[in-house]
Amino acid sequence: MTATMTTPMSAADARAPRTYHVRTLGCQMNVHDSERMAGLLEAAGYVSADDVPAAAARATEAGDGGADVVIVNTCSVRENAATRLFGNLGQLAAVKRERPGMQIAVAGCLAQQMGQGIVDRAPWVDVVFGTHNLDALPALLERARHNAAAAVEIEESLKVFPSTLPTRRESAYAAWVSIAVGCNNTCTFCIVPSLRGKQRDRRPGEVLAEIEAVANQGAIEVTLLGQNVNSYGVGFGDRGAFAKLLRAAGGVEGIERVRFTSPHPAAFTDDVIEAMASTPAVMPSLHMPLQSGSDRVLRAMRRSYRSERFLRILQRVRAAMPEAAITTDIIVGFPGETEEDFQATLDIVEEARFASAFTFEYSPRPGTPAADLEPVPAEVVKDRYRRLDELVRRITHEENMAQEGRVIEVLVAEGEGRRDAVTARVSGRAADNRLVHAALPAGLSAHDYAQGAPRPGDMVTVRVTHGAPHNLIADSALCGRALSEAERAAGEARSAGDRAWYDDGPSLFEVRRTRAGDAWERRQAQAHAAPESDTAPVSLGLPTLRVGASGPAR
């Protein structure tokens, strides 16, 4: 085992609570795992660096957060993941030399894949652990400190289901709830099954118990997570389990929004569509990975569905939920992809009218069947990616413009999107998961919660006044009056992001205070207050209605 770089701690440093910072790369499952790592560390006596001003103040551009313990939760989906990781670790090494007692840990899929190889290339790393043993993190940190040597522990199979571990959730109003880990598919481009293992399902009662627990804590939105959520239940012999789970999750008291990601087209069934359409709390948004519009390429990818089936699914979803927003993933330049294959992808994208799409240039992952295939020339891949990106951007903008005039309810978020000085907009997600920037009524500050500004976790009802290329603008709070020529000219002179977008409708900005907003406010107060007694009462709060600028009922 390679020894780690260590800097002696002073007596004062040894007595102070150790701070931590988790940096998350990759998918929502990694976000979920990072919340568990944070929970484990707090249960072991560590404190988030964000909650310690002296620690946060010393944060550097290396992404250390100013912490004593930095955990990098890695992703291995992209080809350059390892290059980016070691570049970041090199930056952290410089920080570690100046920070007594600092430890660096590497977790996640790349850690599961490389193991000891990470320490061999970066001997200043203290801990490496994989996707199957998150629960070992506190013990590994202590072992590395005690032995002054790197602690590397990679398990080949899952030991403890991550969702059973303590957690510190990033959001007070929305929660990730894992229903399964691993994947039984054999897509030739994907490394995930070999790193996360075969699919293992949680029992429905355990999932619902967690949803009830987060609802009791104030959350009003949950997202059900799995590598292939609509295969949920196969492990315990109930192929209709996912549809049943959607209905049950939507019936949990206090939960207003249920989302899920990601399904697989090959296993997507009508009972799931029926559950989505008939359960009010299940949101009309669907992420359905296409990957390619060419049946020949889909066959080479081992995707086990064809383009016609994919389009039929979208047609059935839209027949049941006309307002549904459907997003997708697409890979460009899979080995052997011809111009005809690529044109088939463009044709499907044009027909499907996705609300947005995550597009990727194919990158080979060592250990996958596709890694040894003859690649498409890089210049061809880049040209195709550019053409696809242009098409996706056009369609996304057109679909956003089609939302103009709609009255929507937005869950206000923290740190999502921009708040500009001119319109004092707040940001959040509509029911269909589109990002919305909503202007506040004139004279109301975004942080003046006592005067009616919505808190993160509250709901606002607004009207879409502009469909921007990547989001919706809802400036209806500023509408309802005639503009002078000077006001109109001043607005049109501003950039698209800074101007107010008026329409001819009435003023509309209604705030509904929620338990989630109460929970966010409590968290903010606790983060800036001295620790309270364990017996201090905690109010869950009750939803109430607060109206800003007047407007018609929805």
From TrEMBL:
Primary location: cytoplasm
GO molecular function: 4 iron, 4 sulfur cluster binding; metal ion binding; tRNA-2-methylthio-N(6)-dimethylallyladenosine(37) synthase activity
Residues the entry annotates as binding [4Fe-4S] cluster 1: 27, 75, 109
SMART domains: Elp3 (SM00729)
Cofactor: [4Fe-4S] cluster
Cellular component GO terms held in the UniProt record: cytosol
Keywords attached to this entry: 4Fe-4S, Cytoplasm, Iron, Iron-sulfur, Metal-binding, S-adenosyl-L-methionine, Transferase, tRNA processing
EC numbers on record: 2.8.4.3
Function: Catalyzes the methylthiolation of N6-(dimethylallyl)adenosine (i(6)A), leading to the formation of 2-methylthio-N6-(dimethylallyl)adenosine (ms(2)i(6)A) at position 37 in tRNAs that read codons beginning with uridine.
Name of the molecule in the record: tRNA-2-methylthio-N(6)-dimethylallyladenosine synthase
Species annotation: Actinomyces marmotae
Organism taxonomic ancestry: Bacteria, Bacillati, Actinomycetota, Actinomycetes, Actinomycetales
